[in-house]
Amino acid sequence: MSYPADNINNFNDVIIIGGGPAGCATALHLLRLDPQTAKHSILLEKSFHPRQKVCGGALTINAEKLLAELDIEVTVPQVPIHHSRFVYGRLNIDLAEDGVAKKVIRRSEFDTMLINTVKDRGFKVLEGVKAIGVTRQANGVLVHTNKGDFGAKAVVGADGVGGLLRKTPGFGPRDRVSRLWMVEVPADPEKTPIYRDRIMHVDFSYASLGVKGYYWEFPCLINGKPYTNRGLVEGTLDKKSRIDGKKLFCEILERRGVSVDGLPILSHPLRPFNPKETFSQPRLLLAGDAIGADPLFSEGISQALSMGRLAAYTLVDGFKHNDLSFLNYTKQVLNSRVGREMKVYMMLSKYVWGRLFEPFLSVLHADTQMRDLFAYSYGGTKDIFRSKRLLAKATAKHMLFLWPRLRRFRRLADLQASALPDLSLKFGSVRNK
To answer: More exposed terminus of the chain, fewer Cβ within 10 Å: N or C?
Structure first.
């Protein structure tokens, strides 16, 4: 190698940057597929687990299938869920009970379970090691960290939206970054509907204010006690139309009877998946949120697990054929199930998060097949990219009766009577700083 011997801590086959679901899935699949390569690889995590993560914590059926492939049983505290509910004003749209998810976990505990599994199975993990730069050399990559330099033949960037590799020339970013806002509030399970009915509550009412996202309420457990995980997907907006997401979130909470005084409000950036981007360079791969989150509903756990799996298969194939150029990785991501699903979600997001959000929700309200399709797609038991004809047919049918159906939909939603924030918060009037 071309590295000076005193300039690196050690030399590895693979360095995985990031100890979230994508990084852990990459390590675990690498252990399963190529133990010898895994033996000479390391995972670098800048924090120490458990660490806080802004996320609703819904564990989809698809995520559980991916975990089962790794022989991982979810042992962290969890709240059983019967179904997911979309809300618009006073109107409820319940998705299939066997569709989206069966449980809600806390990400700090879930991620800790994953990283401990990686350690227990023999993959070397270094926590408290922050990657701050990469240098590609003739025969490998040098990863610069706060604990010194580490060399590797290949590096996987699974360290999220602001990840190190994503910032390197050739990757991007191209899309604007939005934000997630979250609080966890104590709940009385006998008086809280989401506990009583075992539902995940996803409220799209704030789209009428220009929010290209939604408000959520999920049940969760903290130290054995019931809490409500409340959050807001602020959504990506153009440069002229910005919302002060924190101010809007606080007003939503206040109007729902939650005092924000002294309440720790957490925030995290979010970047949507974009199929026009590049996800690999010679010796470098991206995975998980470093590639991008679901552009429609911002779900990320199952996507991260899927991409970690794909990254591991790509690494194994590269070492087998002595070719670490990873020229086909972007194409493989786009042609995978998760990539094809995300492409459809991105296409739909361009219409849904605009003037067509009401027609979209009214289609789901009117058409059981469409509701089931979206539920089963997220659950991983049906592929939405194989159902474009159904999407087109249902949309065309709905358009024939759009205005009478939309008028009825709006009447049932009765937004004016709902506890929406003041319209002075409408986009353009409140600027992010």
So the answer is: C
Instruction: List residues bridging with 41 in a β-sheet.
Output: 14
Among the candidates 335, 365, 388, a domain finishes at: 335
CB of 159 closer than 8 Å to CB of 23: yes
Please tell me the number of Cα atoms within 13 Å of 65 on its side-chain side. 12
Please give the residue range of the domain that contains residue 49.
Answer: 5-57+107-175+273-335
Residues with Cβ within 8 Å of residue 143, at least 6 apart in sequence: 15, 17, 44, 131, 133, 134, 149, 150, 151, 152, 155
- Length of the chain (residues): 433
Token readout for 237 is 């907006």
Phi then psi for residue 14, to 5 deg, are: -135, 140
Mean pLDDT of 285-313: 92
Of 300, 14, 333, 18, nearest to 165 by C-alpha is 18
Six-digit token pair at 79? 């709240």
Read off the tokens for 50: 């458990």
Q: Which amino acid belongs to residue 139? A: N
Q: What is the CATH number of the domain that holds 311?
A: 3.50.50.60
Let me know if residue 77 belongs to a domain: no
Q: Give the C-alpha distances (Å, rounded to integers) separating 86 from 102, 179, 235, 364, 365.
A: 16, 21, 17, 9, 9
Please give the pLDDT value at position 128: 96
- Tell me the pLDDT tens digit for each residue of 53-67: 999 999 999 999 999
User: Do the beta carbons of residue 379 and residue 62 sit within 8 Å?
Assistant: yes
Domain count, the chain: 2
378 and 239 housed in the same domain: yes
What's the count of helices (H) and strands (E) in the chain, helices before strands?
13, 18
The C-alpha atoms of residue 159 and residue 148 are separated, in whole angstroms, by: 18
The neighbour count for residue 7, using CB atoms within 10 Å, is: 11
Q: Is 268 exposed, middle or buried (0-12, 13-18, 19+ CB in 10 A)?
A: middle
Q: What angle (nearest 5°) sits at the alpha carbon of residue 139, between those of residues 136 and 141?
A: 35
**CA separation for the pair 14, 258 (Å, rounded):** 47
Q: Do 210 and 280 share a structural domain?
A: no
